[in-house]
Design a protein that fits this description.
Blueprint: E1 18-23, H1 27-33, E2 40-46, H2 54-68, E3 76-80, E4 98-101, H3 106-111, H4 114-123, E5 127-130, H5 132-136, H6 143-153, H7 159-173, E6 178-183, H8 189-203, E7 206-211, H9 215-221, E8 230-233, E9 237-242, E10 247-252
Parallel strand pairs: 1-2, 1-3, 3-4, 5-6, 6-7
Antiparallel strand pairs: 4-8, 9-10
């Protein structure tokens, strides 16, 4: 006899309650992708400039992880960071596990995967990547970066030393000839594309505007953490650098150097 019961629908999996620690380069993108994410109980953003100071970045994030460990309303911590100059390598999980994407830096996240990033670099090895967050911080090649560097170094170095440092940075720009702007559809994406285009014109570079892939960041925020794209560090483990396509790995504290 035929059953009157219809096939059972799979029970949806709810993402765990999480705390989010994120570089401010992702601030607008996270607001867009997690606008209706009640499982994210707290979000903390940190200055982009910590990218230049990996030891300070590591110490800051470790202190934040230790503080969040006291909370009973979350089940995990997610980090909107990559390896970031090894600034995240050495982070230790306490009471709560933490998760981050397998990425050397944020451009992997903007492009949606480390494979997409590698393919684009092979196609355009002289590209310099621009994003809305990097633009807002004036940390991309262009006239505003020079002015910002002078302001940052004023009072710390002599004028001759400042000019030497600026010239040295401009020499690294000469290794590039294309400004590649990536956006994930935020409200200011078109305006920031115009800014990146102006920087390219100032430098005499080519310009390309590409749409990124939000999948990696979205899945980080919503708890879709497959091992191929994300690294989970559980209590008793620490984050290590993996010198292969995995980028990151879990290490036991006893085995870590």
């Amino acid at each position: 006899m035929k059953s009157d019961e219809s096939p059972r629908k799979p029970i949806p999996t709810m993402p765990p309650n999480i705390a989010l620690l994120a570089c401010s380069v992702f601030e607008r993108e996270i607001a867009l992708l997690a606008a209706d994410a009640p499982h994210i109980r707290e979000t903390r953003f940190y200055e982009i400039a910590l990218h230049d100071r990996p030891d300070e970045l590591r110490a800051k994030l470790q202190a934040e992880l230790a503080e969040i460990d006291a909370r009973d309303d979350i089940e995990a911590v997610i980090l909107a960071y990559g390896l970031c100059g090894r600034g995240t390598a050495g982070l230790r999980a306490g009471r709560h596990p933490f998760v981050l994407p397998r990425a050397h830096d944020c451009i992997t996240v903007f492009l949606g995967s480390k494979e997409h990033y590698a393919a684009h670099q092979r196609a355009c090895p002289t590209c310099y990547y621009y994003t809305p967050g990097w633009n807002r911080a004036r940390r991309v090649p262009g006239p505003d970066k020079i002015a910002a560097t002078r302001e940052q170094l004023a009072g710390k170095f002599d004028e001759d030393d400042i000019e030497f440092l600026i010239e040295s940075e401009q020499e690294t720009w000469a290794l590039h000839d294309t400004a590649t702007y990536i956006d994930l559809g935020t409200d200011e994406a078109e305006a920031e594309a115009d800014y990146a285009k102006r920087c390219a014109d100032h430098l005499g570079w080519k310009f390309e505007h590409i749409r990124g892939d939000p999948a990696l960041l979205r899945d980080l925020l919503w708890g879709n953490w497959d091992d191929s794209r994300f690294q989970t560090i559980r209590p008793g483990e620490m984050l290590g650098h993996s010198p292969d396509e995995n980028v990151l790995r879990a290490e036991t504290r006893e085995a870590a150097p």
